[in-house]
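User
Take a look at the entry that follows and flag anything odd:
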Amino acid sequence: MKPADWFAFVLLSALWGASFLFIRVAAPAFGPAFLMDVRVWLAGLSMLLFTTLTGKRISFRGRVKSLLLLGALNAGVPFTLIAAAELEIPASLTAMIIGTTPMLTAVAASLLGEEEMTFGKTVALLAGLAGVGVLVGWTPIPLTFDSLLAAGVAFLAACCYALGGIYVSRKFQGVPALTMAIGQQLGAGVILLPLALFRLPRAAPPAEAVWALLALTFFSTVLAYLCYFRLIRNAGPTTTLSVNFLIPVFSLVGGVLWLGETVGWGTWVGLALVSLSLMFVTKSEDGGRRKSGTEKRALLR
């Protein structure tokens, strides 16, 4: 990659890693559903404005139902689950659990007959599950019913991302990435709207939460997707997927420095196991996965 592509790669990792920190700050004030509905509407409309100003053309014709389902699986539902989880557990722990998404995607693809369950993917599955177990079992936070439930909710969000990736590879062959990104955000906005209106914030959110929401929208969503598109075009989908190695690291460092989160030895061991699972999945996919599906499945955040 060129130096500018390396910068985009690191920036994308940092932006998606920081999203967990912004959610941790904003979710208690806005509520999970309302926060994420505002996020996806602002992001989708901003990207739509960007395409108009730059003369790019997108079309949702014949894809409205598919984009609504994509918005639910790949944005609305997992976004809200992540925000709900972060009401109870640290941003860094949530990010590391979500880091199992590529491993879960490989497993789901194998179960659905999309790909073969190779030795590498089996190792990835075992390492990823062990990593989650270590992360949750040896976390510095007290192990209560609520924290365990929150960890399960975060894992469910990763499962949604995995199913969303499979759905993309099946239903969106040949669809421009920008069309999917905008359609996904707006579809998620429509899906979340009833729940968001039902659970409005009880009080005016503090300035800190508002700034976190804006940063989540315009930095970790709009700007992140611009970096993502550049990397897909210049570096390829497999390299772009490698940002998943750095996302938990940025979230962990940011959580410690910014939010004062604590980490223990279990955090580092769990992170290493989750990273090992991602390494095996990436290596396996690089050698055998269909290219069309690979590029689409990079669209995870």
Summary: Residues 289-300 have pLDDT under 50 and may be disordered. DSSP finds 13 helices and no strands in the chain. The CA atoms of residues 97 and 301 lie 14 Å apart. The chain has one domain: 3-297.
